[in-house]
Design a protein that fits this description.
This protein has 541 residues and is α/β, with parallel strands linked by helices. It has 15 helices and 22 strands. The longest helix is centred in the N-terminal third of the chain and has 15 residues. The model has no long low-confidence stretch (mean pLDDT 97). The structure holds 1-O-alpha-D-glucopyranosyl-D-fructose and calcium ion.
């Protein structure tokens, strides 16, 4: 078994985690100060969102120097100390690799823009206008065309994200070798691996409007593996919005020499219409159970699942699919138990472990995220009303995940002694780490116990998964079986009580992780309270 198969990964969005010097921005020294907290939680690795040199057009996902630390986050010495201090606590640092695009302020692009014969011109994707227009109707994820005209050379360049994030040309072998050199610079520092930003886009064929699943994608990933991380005992996780169980085998099969695992997003898109995430649709629990169960059962033993509800791009799950008012604690524990007892590597997004919630905005002036701001502008011009757009942003905007980590009930939730770059959620008085640590019944201790449980129970890591009650509209229940040892996991994801039937259990069966006061297993007819979850162990001992 690889270390990352029974590991739990904690994602830090550094800008919002802990500010150590009072400038209102989280930083690396702030993370070092909080390593004891993460050791207490029991996580094995930190996925660190970008801390590199960047103009912050997309909060660091627009990199202008891959081998320099943004001064707002600190110095390379701070980064080396973070890797060292984390290692002392058996925590690996997994860096964010953003190589589908650079910033337009990267030296390569500054050179490329200087003219058609520039040394780095072909590191990017340039095309002549067609009939005086963009080469085709490829769209940017951040609204508008994916092509921007460069007056100087009278050509368009491609950017699937903001115009300050020009796409790299992966057809260029010299460009690829420069990326591999950079990756080896980081691997030689002893990092634990890479999370790879939109990595399924590097095989794009723009002239045929192919963006994901391009013809050379797996060739590039195998080359990258052989030239860099394949020589280390590290973890790689690809962000692949196009993943299906079929291609996940190609990305993560043990014999593929590609990645350890991928983030698939099929469950994340269940509460939207096909056209966009902003077109809201109510989640259908049966669909959620079907999709997640498909991923649990269709990957072969040689491939591997990642498991997540949240990241820095998604609204917070307790607000999105739970109940962040009356049943906030109960529903947050339901999502923790459901995710952490599945097969795969679980990811915890900062604040998820204390049940942090979305933060509502009343006006677009409060919004920081380029994706939301560009959508608002574009849709306003298309005649949509501001209230409808703000409602969509309050449901799906990425700022929901980026409000500062809530450490205590003091000013700015203990995140910063200065003015935070983004408003702190006013519920930090009740929802914060200090309160959670002091309360044995807090969500924090459910996460801590689940992380420990994974380490002690091979059934959680390797057990076969089987969905129970597939058509129940309120209850998500499944069983895991390994070498005759079976556990049953059940959660009522509704505000009404729910009655279910469960398989016969042995005398020795016992209840674990109950978020109410359920103590024993006493029948096959169960009535679950609103947002009640529990695990039954020794089901058939
Ligand atoms: O996200 C890829 C991406 O497409 C998301 O931005 C998604 O489309 C959007 O959030 C709707 O859910 C990665 C990074 O995670 C994101 O933060 C960056 O903005 C993006 O790539 C560009 O680097
Ligand atoms: Ca700071």
């Amino acid at each position: 078994m690889k270390w990352w198969q029974n590991a739990v990964v904690y994602q830090i969005y550094p800008r919002s985690f802990q500010d150590s010097n009072g400038d209102g921005l989280g930083d690396i020294r702030g993370i070092i100060q909080r390593l004891d907290y993460l050791e207490e939680l029991g996580i094995d690795a930190i996925w660190l969102s970008p801390v590199y040199q960047s103009p912050n057009d997309d909060n660091g996902y627009d990199i202008s120097d891959y081998q320099a630390i943004h001064p707002e986050f600190g110095t390379m010495d701070d980064m080396d100390e973070l890797i060292e201090e984390a290692k002392k606590r058996s925590i690996r640092i997994v860096m964010d690799l953003v190589v589908n695009h650079t910033s337009d302020e990267h030296e390569w692009f500054k050179d490329a823009k200087s003219g058609v014969n520039a040394k780095y011109r072909d590191y990017y994707i340039w095309r002549d206008p067609i009939d005086g227009e963009e080469p085709n109707d490829l769209k940017s994820t951040f609204s508008g065309s994916a092509w921007t005209f460069d007056e100087n050379s009278q050509q368009y360049y491609l950017h699937l994200f903001s115009k300050k994030q020009p796409d790299l040309n992966w057809e260029n072998p010299k460009m690829r070798q420069d990326i591999y050199k950079m990756m080896n610079f980081w691997l030689e520092k002893g990092i634990g691996g890479f999370r790879m930003d939109v990595i399924d886009l590097i095989g794009k064929v723009p002239d045929e409007k192919i963006t994901d699943k391009g013809p050379r994608l797996h060739e590039f990933l195998q080359e990258m593996n052989h030239e860099t991380f394949g020589q280390y005992d590290v973890m790689t996780v690809g962000e692949t919005w196009s993943a299906t169980p079929e291609n996940a085998e190609l990305f993560s099969g043990a014999d593929r020499d590609e990645l350890s695992m991928v983030f698939q997003f099929e469950h994340i898109t269940l509460d939207q219409e096909p056209e966009s995430k902003w077109a809201l649709k109510a989640l259908d629990l049966v669909e959620l159970k079907t999709v997640l169960s498909k991923w649990q059962t269709s990957l072969s033993d040689s491939a591997w699942n990642s498991l997540f509800w949240n990241n820095h791009d998604t609204p917070r799950v307790v607000s999105r699919w739970g109940n962040d008012q009356e049943y906030r604690v109960e529903s947050a524990k339901c999502f923790a138990v459901l995710l952490h007892l599945m097969k795969g590597t679980p990811y915890i997004y900062q604040g998820e472990e204390i049940g942090m919630t979305n933060r509502l905005v009343k006006d677009i002036s409060e919004v920081k995220d380029i994706e939301s701001i560009n959508m608002y502008k574009e849709e306003l011009e298309n005649g949509k009303h501001s209230e409808e757009l703000l409602n969509a942003i309050n449901h799906k905007g990425r700022d929901n995940a980026r409000t500062p980590m809530q450490w205590n009930d003091e000013m700015n939730a203990g995140f910063s002694k200065g003015t935070p770059w983004i408003a702190v959620n006013s519920n930090h008085n009740e929802i914060n780490v200090e309160q959670a640590i002091a309360d044995q019944e807090s969500i924090f201790y459910t996460y801590k116990e689940l992380i420990q449980y994974r380490k002690e129970n091979e059934a959680v890591v390797l057990g076969a998964y089987n969905l129970l009650l597939p058509n129940h509209q309120q209850v998500f229940a499944y069983e895991r079986t390994h070498k005759g040892n079976k556990i049953i996991v059940a959660a009522n994801l509704s505000e009404e009580s729910a009655s279910i039937e469960l398989p016969e259990t042995s005398e020795k069966a016992s209840v674990r992780f109950s978020n109410y006061d359920r103590k024993q297993v006493d029948s096959t007819e169960w009535i679950l309270k609103p947002y009640e979850c529990f695990v039954i162990e020794n089901v058939n001992q």
